[in-house]
């Protein structure tokens, strides 16, 4: 049975082009095509589409706001954002609202069918530049959470150290040698740019590293 696809796009020519592309593929059928999202809840409830293609920048209400309404109403229908934007704010606002994928309009002719199929099977299709941006942002957030680059084991040792545990107890806790504990602590001191256990613990607590 063909997948029902609903299209939200305010550009008439582009909307008609997307509808034509969908209609040419026997695996899909157009459930509806709309120039705005002002009645999105009513339309989704009535049509019950399998896939939603959602433009971001539309008059009256944005595609991101529409995604929020759809998710708030309890529908888990996969939603792929179609947009000319590839900036962080639009990407993450859409993803946080509940978008399932993100495709730049310039890639529509080459990637629309594959992206819809990926959505159908539970994937999260994204244009390469969008995927790189998401990964880059995740790296930046990770760096903000761990600005000194402490490894997981170094953080464990530092946490144990903050509890007043001796090197021997720390070694026992993590099943490592005392020499390994010393190496981890030496690395922690270097990364935090401190010279003592008290300094390391104080800095870790003050900067919420542990």
Structure write-up:
The chain is of the alpha/beta class and 210 residues long. It folds into two domains: 3-132, 3-Layer(aba) Sandwich (Rossmann fold), CATH 3.40.50.2300; 152-206, Winged helix-like DNA-binding domain superfamily/Winged helix DNA-binding domain (Arc Repressor Mutant, subunit A), CATH 1.10.10. The chain has ten helices and five strands, in the order βαβαβαβαβαααααα. The protein has helices at residues 12-24, 40-47, 63-72, 88-97, 108-120, 128-145, 152-162, 167-174, 178-192, 197-206; strands at residues 3-8, 28-34, 51-55, 79-83, 101-104. A five-stranded parallel beta sheet has the order 2-1-3-4-5, sandwiched between helices. Helix 7 (152-162) packs across helix 9 and helix 8 (167-174) packs across helix 9. 30% of the residues are buried. The mean pLDDT is 90.
| SSE sequence, one letter per element | EHEHEHEHEHHHHHH
Give the N-terminus to C-terminus distance in angstroms. 53 Å
CATH architecture type of the largest domain: 3-Layer(aba) Sandwich
Total domains: 2
Oligomer: single chain
Find the CATH superfamily of the largest domain.
Response regulator
Number of helices: 10
Which CATH C-level class of the largest domain is it? Alpha Beta
CATH-defined fold name of the largest domain: Rossmann fold
Low-pLDDT stretches are none
* Overall helicity: 55-70%
On the 0 to 100 scale, the average pLDDT is: 90
Structural category: alpha/beta
Give the spatial strand order of the biggest sheet.
2-1-3-4-5
- What is the strand content? 5-15%
């Amino acid at each position: 049975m063909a997948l029902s696809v609903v299209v939200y796009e305010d550009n008439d020519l582009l909307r008609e082009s997307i509808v034509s592309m969908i209609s040419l593929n026997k695996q899909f059928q157009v459930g509806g095509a709309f120039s705005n999202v002002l009645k999105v809840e009513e339309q989704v409830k009535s049509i019950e589409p399998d896939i939603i293609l959602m433009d971001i920048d539309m008059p009256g209400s944005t595609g991101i706001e529409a995604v929020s309404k759809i998710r708030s109403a309890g529908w888990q229908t996969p939603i792929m954002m179609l947009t000319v934007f590839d900036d962080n704010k639009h990407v993450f606002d859409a993803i946080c609202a509940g978008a399932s994928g993100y495709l730049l309009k310039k890639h529509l002719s080459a990637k629309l069918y594959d992206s819809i199929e990926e959505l159908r099977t539970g994937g999260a299709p994204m244009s390469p530049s969008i995927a790189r941006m998401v990964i880059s942002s995740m790296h930046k957030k990770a760096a903000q959470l761990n600005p000194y680059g402490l490894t997981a084991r170094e953080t464990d040792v530092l946490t144990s150290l903050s509890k007043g545990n001796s090197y021997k107890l720390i070694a026992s806790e993590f099943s490592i040698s005392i020499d390994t504990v010393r190496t981890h602590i030496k690395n922690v001191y270097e990364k935090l740019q401190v010279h003592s256990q008290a300094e390391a613990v104080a800095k870790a607590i003050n900067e919420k590293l542990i």
